Amino acid sequence: MQVTPKNIEIAVKGKWVVVPALEIDGKSIVVNGKWISIARVEAEEWLESELQDPAQCVELLKQQGSGGLRADILSFSQKLPEVRPKYEYPMEWDSIAAVRLTTFEAWWTRLPQETRKNVRRAQKRGVIVQVKSMDDGLIQDLHALNNDSPVRQGKVFTHFGKTLDQVRKDQAAFLDRSDYICAYHDKELIGVVKLIYRGDVASILTFLPKASQHDKRPANAIMAKAVELCEKKGIGHLTFGKFNYGNKRHTPLREFKIRNGFEEILVPHYYVPLTVKGAISVRLKLHRGLLGILPHNVITLLVNTRSKLHAFKHEPV
What we know:
Strand order of the largest sheet: 1-2-3-4-5-14-6-13-12-11-10-7
Distance between the termini: 59 Å
Structural class: alpha+beta
Number of helices: 10
Shape: globular
Largest sheet: 12 strands, mixed
Number of strands: 14
Order of helices and strands: EEEEHEEHHEHEEHEEEHEHEHHH
Radius of gyration: 21 Å
Oligomer: single chain
Strand content: 25-35%
């Protein structure tokens, strides 16, 4: 196993920061967390393959000193369609939102009637969907789309107000195996999906419909195009983040996924203790964070409160 210590740039809450990393067989392992340090495969959900030798990775991490690569837990997951656990490490199930793809027609007939109507509404209201690669024109369109609203889904939108160069940097990853599915109305970009190809899996990295153009249903139009494109490429699964985020459930985004044919597929996710503190944390489930510990009703209360605060703060004067 080839191991190379280095510094890499990663995006954290919309900002680029330099962090130490171990490069192990072509994958970058980074460590984050204030109280519980967790080593993770950087950008794991967008990579084409899994961590190949977890046992050697565990040993290498245990050899790290007190610097930025000292970790309490190693976190890694399996990749669809591998849903049977391969290892004996402590494991939990990742809740993945996915469409099992056979044909576009099969996906379409399973959709609720209202979803199919929304796709047709987009067409009738003049929405044109195109599959594009990155260029300067698309960067400018994405820059304008980012600045549609400072708040999205009740949270501060971290890409609001960024410069063209910052947008270009944000979009630079995985361009050799990605497509942009763009919804236009009167030459204005009103919705986009960045689709990353990972072998026989395609994953949605960016999903950004323009809220002020919701009546034209760009989100439904670009989702239908994504499924159609995946069928043409012989993709077995289309994934869209998590189905359930810890104990946080019944969100508008989750309901949108369900209405567009996504279902929950459980995939093994391993949490390997590297220290005594790590072992205690895994046993007590502390590594899950607040979304995995607090009950749903408390999470809902906190999310609603946050949304109201952000809406009040950014309300036009």
